[in-house]
């Protein structure tokens, strides 16, 4: 097993579910999880849904500004809804993209008796466009079913019981429709980062390109589109749960120069009430059982992320900080005191 990578591997979902090919494909999945932190998941059975969704997305962004502003994220303490171009930051730099954020439907309405971070789970705002809500809810339902199955397969590839990570799953996961307009060369679509919202990301990208991942040699590796596939990557939640043995990989999007780029990421969420103590205890237990080299486990002493910061009572608070700083206009409106506090904090 090599220590770095020069391309992102492909894992065939249909072979993972075929008893005759399952063992070989689980080995490929394990290699991708240990070495790269990214993989293409092919033959998922969702190809038609992915195609239909990509066909619809441009129309949602072509809606009038007035229509899009009606569901602007500024109206949502849950950070759900439309974000206009240039309103989100990554690595303290403005991203050149606009997007819609949606969450798992049917969340309980927040009350004053609930923890403040529980407001992250809230109702969706849908664009006023025929069929938009139905498409979003269909996509979330089907991608979540696949995501749950995928996490079980990851556990099996690590020689763990399939349900090892079930207790970490959150109530709400998040779906985005993202548009990257044509920009000047080397503009930031999304700056270098690790996904921080949960366990795994399941990304469908169009045929434009621009996604890159950083290998251990400090080289940016292109992740060119493969039609119908999903690009799956480890998030910081899974990195923390596995004590850093299964590490999240830094990635970015270079803004397109000749055509608009559309993408559909789905972020499988972690439960918001997960505490640092519980996380560390679980991670220690899980790491002992993962058949990784002792050297890999020794290197996984710490995971520098919000998940392992003693500044926060639980993941819900840590994730709320992330949202507030990424969407400062929403943060200032709904959480002014927390915005002032988090703006001055340095992660420990």
Helix content: 25-40%
- What is the average of the pLDDT values? 91
The gross shape turns out to be globular
How many helices?
A: 11
Oligomer: single chain
By CATH, the architecture is named Sandwich
The helix/strand class is alpha+beta
Please summarize the sheet with the most strands: 8 strands, mixed
Into which percentage range does the β-strand content fall? 15-25%
Q: Termini distance? A: 33 Å
CATH topology: Jelly Rolls
Radius of gyration: 19 Å
Unreliable segments of 5+ consecutive residues: 297-303
Task: Note down, in words, how this protein is organized.
It holds the Pfam family DIOX_N. One of its GO terms (molecular function) is dioxygenase activity. Keywords: Dioxygenase, Iron, Metal-binding, Oxidoreductase. By secondary structure, this protein is an alpha+beta fold. It has a single domain (10-308), classed as Jelly Rolls (Sandwich). The protein has helices at 13-16, 22-36, 47-61, 65-69, 132-157, 236-241, 276-289, 294-299, 315-326, 328-334, 336-343; strands at residues 10-12, 38-42, 81-83, 89-90, 93-94, 98-103, 174-180, 188-193, 198-205, 211-214, 220-222, 230-234, 251-254, 261-269. The strands form 3 sheets. An 8-stranded mixed beta sheet has the order 1-2-12-9-14-7-6-3. A 4-stranded antiparallel beta sheet has the order 8-13-10-11, with no helix packed on it. It has a two-stranded antiparallel sheet with strand order 4-5. A hairpin with a 5-residue loop joins strand 10 (211-214) and strand 11. Helix 9 (315-326) packs across helix 10. The longest helix has 26 residues, at 132-157.
């Amino acid at each position: 097993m090599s220590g770095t990578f020069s391309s992102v591997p492909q894992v065939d979902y249909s072979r993972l579910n075929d008893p005759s090919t399952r063992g070989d494909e689980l080995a490929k999945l394990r290699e991708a999880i240990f070495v790269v932190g990214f993989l293409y998941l092919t033959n998922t059975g969702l190809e038609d849904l992915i195609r239909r969704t990509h066909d619809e997305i441009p129309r949602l962004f072509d809606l009038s500004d007035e229509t899009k502003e009606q569901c602007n994220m500024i109206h949502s303490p849950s950070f759900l809804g439309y974000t206009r171009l240039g309103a989100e930051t990554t690595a303290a730099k403005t991203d050149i993209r606009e997007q819609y954020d949606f969450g798992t439907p049917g969340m309980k309405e927040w009350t004053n008796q609930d923890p403040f971070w529980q407001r992250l789970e809230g109702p969706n705002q849908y664009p006023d466009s025929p069929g938009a809500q139905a498409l979003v809810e269909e996509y979330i339902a089907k991608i979540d079913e696949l995501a749950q199955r995928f996490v079980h397969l990851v556990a099996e590839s690590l020689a763990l019981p399939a349900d090892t990570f079930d207790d970490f799953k959150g109530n709400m996961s998040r779906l985005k429709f993202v548009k990257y307009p044509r920009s000047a060369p080397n503009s930031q679509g999304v700056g270098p980062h690790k996904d921080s919202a949960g366990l795994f990301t399941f990304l469908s990208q169009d045929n434009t390109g621009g996604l890159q991942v950083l290998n251990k040699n400090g080289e940016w590796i292109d992740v060119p589109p493969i039609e119908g596939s999903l690009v799956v990557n480890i998030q910081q939640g899974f990195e923390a749960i596995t004590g850093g043995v299964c590490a999240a990989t830094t990635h970015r999007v270079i803004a397109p120069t000749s055509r608009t780029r559309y993408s559909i990421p789905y972020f499988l969420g972690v439960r918001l009430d997960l505490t640092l103590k519980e996380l560390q205890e679980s991670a220690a237990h899980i790491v002992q059982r993962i058949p990784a080299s002792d050297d890999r486990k020794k290197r996984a002493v710490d995971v520098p992320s919000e998940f392992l910061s003693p500044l926060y009572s639980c993941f819900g608070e840590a994730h709320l900080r992330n949202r507030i700083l990424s969407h400062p206009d929403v943060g200032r409106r709904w959480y002014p005191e927390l915005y002032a506090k988090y703006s001055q904090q340095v992660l420990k």
